[in-house]
Amino acid sequence: MVALTLVRPPAKIVPFPSTTVEATLRDELVEAVKIEASIRGVGLPVARADIAKASVHIDSLVVVSILCAVEEIVGFEVPESVVRVGGYTSVDSALGQLLPNLEKLWARKKGAES
Questions:
Q1: In a domain, 1, yes or no
Q2: Alpha helical stretches, state H, 3-47
Q3: Residue 4 domain-assigned?
Q4: Fewer Cβ in 10 A, N or C end of the chain?
Q5: Is the Cα torsion angle 78, 72, 11, 18 positive or negative in sign?
Q6: pLDDT of res. 9
Q7: What pLDDT tens digit does each residue of the chain (114 aa) get?
Q8: Is 27 a member of any domain?
Q9: Please, are residues 60 and 73 in contact by the beta-carbon 8 Å criterion?
């Protein structure tokens, strides 16, 4: 009789969808900044890249509400704790803090599934 050894297939590692997450966050943040600027009567640069660099306050509660768009991409609920309390001074500063936090969260969540 031949003994069979069951071997578990290696876990499939899915890379963090950084390009999609960044593009989604950038679009949502720029739109939030444009809305806030229009409400306050503040002028913004025309180009989206320049808006992302502009010194503007982005409230942390606004950023928390934007996380819904990211949840659709990553496939899990993103906790508010990834957002810096007090908000951000630009779209680029928000992305610089959020993306590494989201990637770490992705690694923990997706690693736990394997």
A1: no
A2: 18-40
A3: no
A4: N
A5: negative
A6: 63
A7: 666 677 666 666 779 999 999 999 999 999 999 999 999 998 999 999 999 999 999 999 999 999 999 999 999 999 999 999 999 999 999 999 999 999 999 999 887 554
A8: yes
A9: no
Q: Please name which of 82, 76, 80 lies closest in space to residue 100, comparing C-alpha atoms.
A: 82
Taking the alpha carbons at both ends of the chain, their separation in whole angstroms is: 33
Is 7 part of any domain? no
- The residues near 34 (Cβ < 8 Å, ≥ 6 apart) are 44, 51
CB 73 within 8 A of CB 20: yes
Where in the sequence is the domain holding 65, given as residue range(s)?
A: 18-113
pTM, 2 dp: 0.84
Residue at 95: amino acid letter? L
CA distance 114 to 2: 30
Structurally, the chain folds into a number of domains equal to: 1
**Type of residue numbered 86:** G
